[in-house]
Amino acid sequence: MKKIFFLLIILIVIPSFAQMHMQMQEKQRERIEQLKKIKLMEALSLSEEESIRFFSRYNDFHSKVKDFQLKKEKAIDEIQRLVQDGDKNFSDQKCDELLKKLISIEQQSDKLKSDFVKSLEDILPKFKIAKLIVFEREFARELNELIMSRRRMMRGKSFQE
Predict the structure, then answer these.
(1) What is residue 115's three-state secondary structure?
(2) DSSP label at residue 87
(3) pLDDT digits over 69-82, tens only?
(4) With left for phi above 0 and alpha for psi between -120 and 50, is residue 160 left, alpha or beta?
């Protein structure tokens, strides 16, 4: 009886923790996006009119980028399953099909980025567009460095304990 009770508690608690973790990750992602927008407004010195028009287009663009990222992840997952199945189920034809699908997704994503940059020409001067491109790279680098340093810190704590 105790084993069944314990098992029921585990089955109830673990999904709750997983859901809480996902919600925390989503909140962190939202905070990072908010911080990014604030820093972006500062870096580009956007006027009120520029800011409204720019972020309308920017938000739409990032929504589409996320869609492409999900499509890319799904395509890579399919390739991974094909590879993990090993030689017995491997098919050159299926592999070729999946690789073409992945390349197509990446090409569409690249075109989306190119079209986005071109679409900014009626909102921002070229200097600010150039600053945006540099900002995006630098923000991503800083974020990656921050994440890596936090991971190193966490590893250090777990080794000390």
Answers:
(1) helix
(2) T
(3) 999 999 999 988 88
(4) alpha
Residue 31 is inside which H or E element, if any? helix 2-44
pLDDT at residue 11, rounded to an integer: 56
In the structure encoding, which two tokens stand for residue 17, read together?
């923790």
Report whether 72 contacts 109 (CB < 8 A). yes
Distance (Å, whole) CA 94 – CA 82: 8
Task: Give the N- to C-terminal CA distance of the chain in Å, as an integer.
Answer: 36
Domain ranges of the chain: 1-44, 47-160
The amino acid present at 3, given as its one-letter code, is K
Tell me phi and psi for residue 105, to 5 degrees. Answer: -60, -45
- Ranges of the chain with pLDDT below 50: none
CB 68 within 8 A of CB 138: no
Q: Using alpha carbons, list the distances in angstroms from residue 12 to 4, 17, 59.
A: 12, 9, 37
Rounded alpha-carbon distances, angstroms, from residue 16 to 4, 6, 28, 44, 153: 19, 16, 18, 42, 27
Give the closest residue to 124 by CA, choosing from 50, 68, 56: 50
